[in-house]
């Protein structure tokens, strides 16, 4: 009996040792301690770095509770909690209005964290954290600002990069003033409504193709108030003007007094920062999945944010607490510019959106005895309920020709072909998949491909009698096109 108890205790000890070993393995395998590291935050699709939004991981020991300090647009930083196991990282966001989470994976070199920011069951955005002390910089940024301008609330700043990379024309800049993100994406920025006092301007640049970042750069500047002697000069000028008017009036005959309207009092300053949107230009793919994030800042907080777009059906807008998301579905051959007005109270900002269309391609293979088979490929200029075409040879229609049609969407795989026949006029018609038309919205009742010309090898088959002898054998006629593989799940996701 004592031997049995001793064996049990020995087995329990071995289990405890193995459990501790499993918990210790991530650290032993080289899991990095991220405590004290600082990271540049980027979010959106495409990713946009934030010039002055640097996360600090306060405690980042693998297997221990995670604590992250996150800035909040000029306000005191917020401390967020989460978990980190040496590879996967999760940061929880708990607000009064929504609950979200950042979930990402640490790269092998420990210089980058990529993942998704999720709010609710359906809304998510890609984000990236780039470690400041391990980032591969494109160059060194410098900022120069003009503050002594005629406009007392205007500041003009310019960023310069040295050495200048080869892809300098493909750089996107991100600016912030006093911790608040600015809409400009170029090397020059005009800051309006800048009040007298000390300010901090920050900038960061990103290569569009490689997504490499520059090291963020910040400077402090002071905006001086309007000089007091400006008021004296204005008063002196008004006095001289009034004296001249009275002197001139004394040399003219007196006239009846003219009743003048009372001047309306000048409206007091609103007391809130001006309305801004970040960014003010956006590019979307019309596949219904690509999403752009627009942040709305400033404006009258008592007024709701309203959006007006033309054409409105082209954009799908998902509102949020600090802005909104945009998605679009567009089938065609040309890009579509869209102007979106963001309104809040009496203030308006304009967002310019360019939607890139997705291609819907049709392939029709025509065959008939006595004629050389031909395969015709085309892209639809707009989504239609049906596809029509005409088959001929030598200026005469070819009746009862076999037409096998297939569909391809957005560069995917070709769908299984369906079989149809030309009628006595050489015309064929295929209906588009009903689900595709319903989700992507029909733009036209039908779309016609270019006339298909067959080469006749036996002139007798061109006659109606010869054409009638050619019938469909070994198959059935089906004029409704099939969806390509995977298109059903895509339509479910964007519907």
Fold and architecture overview:
Strands 1-2-3-4-5-6-7-8 form an eight-stranded antiparallel beta barrel. The chain is mainly beta and 495 residues long. It has helices at 2-28, 228-250, 434-440, 464-468, 487-494; strands at residues 38-43, 48-59, 65-72, 75-84, 88-94, 99-106, 112-119, 123-131, 140-146, 155-162, 171-177, 180-181, 188-191, 197-207, 217-223, 276-278, 281-285, 292-297, 305-310, 315-319, 323-328, 336-344, 347-356, 360-368, 371-379, 384-393, 396-397, 402-409, 418-421, 427-431, 444-448, 452-453, 455-456. It folds into four domains: 38-133, Lipocalin, CATH 2.40.128; 140-223, Sandwich (Immunoglobulin-like); 276-356, Sandwich (Immunoglobulin-like), CATH 2.60.40.1080; 360-494, no CATH class. The radius of gyration is 34 Å and the shape is globular.
Number of helices: 5
| Regions with little confidence, pLDDT below 50 for 5+ residues | 24-29, 250-269, 461-476
Approximately how much helix is present in the residues?
Answer: 10-25%
- β-strand amount: 35-45%
Structural class: mainly beta
Keywords:
about 500 residues; mainly beta; Lipocalin; Immunoglobulin-like; 5 helices; about 15% helix; globular
SSE topology sketch:
Layout: H1 2-28, E1 38-43, E2 48-59, E3 65-72, E4 75-84, E5 88-94, E6 99-106, E7 112-119, E8 123-131, E9 140-146, E10 155-162, E11 171-177, E12 180-181, E13 188-191, E14 197-207, E15 217-223, H2 228-250, E16 276-278, E17 281-285, E18 292-297, E19 305-310, E20 315-319, E21 323-328, E22 336-344, E23 347-356, E24 360-368, E25 371-379, E26 384-393, E27 396-397, E28 402-409, E29 418-421, E30 427-431, H3 434-440, E31 444-448, E32 452-453, E33 455-456, H4 464-468, H5 487-494
Parallel strand pairs: 17-23, 26-31, 26-32
Antiparallel strand pairs: 1-2, 1-8, 2-3, 3-4, 4-5, 5-6, 6-7, 7-8, 9-10, 10-13, 11-12, 11-14, 14-15, 16-18, 18-21, 19-22, 20-21, 22-23, 24-25, 24-28, 25-33, 26-27, 26-30, 28-29
């Amino acid at each position: 009996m004592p031997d049995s108890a001793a064996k049990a205790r020995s087995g329990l000890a071995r289990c405890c040792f193995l459990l501790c070993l499993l918990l210790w393995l991530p650290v032993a395998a080289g899991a990095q301690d991220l405590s004290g590291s600082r990271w540049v935050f980027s979010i959106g699709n495409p990713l946009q770095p934030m010039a002055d939004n640097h996360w600090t991981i306060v405690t980042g020991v693998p297997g221990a509770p995670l604590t992250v300090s996150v800035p909040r647009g000029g306000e005191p930083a917020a401390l967020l909690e989460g978990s980190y196991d040496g590879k996967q990282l999760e940061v929880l966001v708990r607000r009064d209005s929504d609950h979200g989470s950042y979930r990402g994976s640490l790269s092998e070199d420990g210089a980058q964290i990529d993942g998704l920011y999720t709010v609710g069951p359906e809304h998510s955005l890609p984000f990236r954290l780039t470690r400041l002390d391990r980032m591969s910089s494109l160059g060194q940024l410098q900022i120069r600002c003009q503050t002594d301008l005629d406009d007392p609330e205007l500041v003009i700043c310019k960023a310069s990069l040295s050495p200048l990379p080869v892809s300098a024309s493909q750089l996107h800049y991100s600016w912030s003033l006093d911790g608040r993100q600015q809409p400009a994406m170029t090397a020059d920025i005009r800051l309006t409504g800048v009040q007298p006092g000390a300010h901090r301007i920050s900038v960061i640049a990103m290569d569009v193709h490689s997504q490499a970042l520059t090291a963020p750069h910040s400077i402090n500047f002071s905006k001086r108030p309007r000089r007091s002697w400006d008021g004296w000069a204005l008063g002196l000028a008004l006095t001289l003007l009034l004296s001249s008017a009275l002197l001139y009036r004394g040399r003219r005959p007196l006239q009846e007094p003219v009743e003048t309207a009372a001047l309306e009092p000048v409206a007091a300053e609103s007391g809130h920062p001006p309305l801004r949107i970040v960014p003010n230009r956006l590019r979307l793919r019309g596949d219904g999945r690509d999403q752009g994030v627009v942040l709305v800042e400033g404006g009258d907080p008592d007024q709701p944010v309203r959006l007006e777009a033309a054409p409105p059906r082209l954009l799908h807008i998902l509102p949020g607490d600090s802005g909104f998301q945009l998605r679009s579905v567009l089938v065609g051959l040309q890009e579509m510019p869209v102007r979106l007005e963001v309104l809040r109270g009496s203030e308006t900002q304009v967002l310019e959106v360019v939607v890139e269309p997705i291609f819907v391609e049709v392939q029709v293979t025509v065959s008939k005895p006595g004629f050389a088979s031909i395969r015709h490929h085309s892209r639809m200029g707009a989504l239609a309920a049906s596809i029509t075409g005409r088959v001929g040879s030598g200026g005469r229609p070819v009746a009862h020709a076999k037409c096998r049609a297939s569909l391809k969407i957005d560069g995917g795989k070709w769908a299984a072909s369906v079989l149809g026949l030309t009628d006595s006029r050489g015309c064929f018609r295929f209906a588009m998949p009903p689900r595709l038309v319903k989700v992507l919205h029909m733009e036209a009742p039908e779309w016609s491909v270019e006339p298909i010309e067959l080469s006749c090898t036996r002139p007798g088959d061109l006659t109606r009698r010869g054409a009638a002898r050619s019938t469909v054998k070994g198959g059935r006629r089906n004029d409704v096109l099939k969806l390509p593989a995977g298109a059903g799940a895509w339509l479910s996701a964007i519907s």
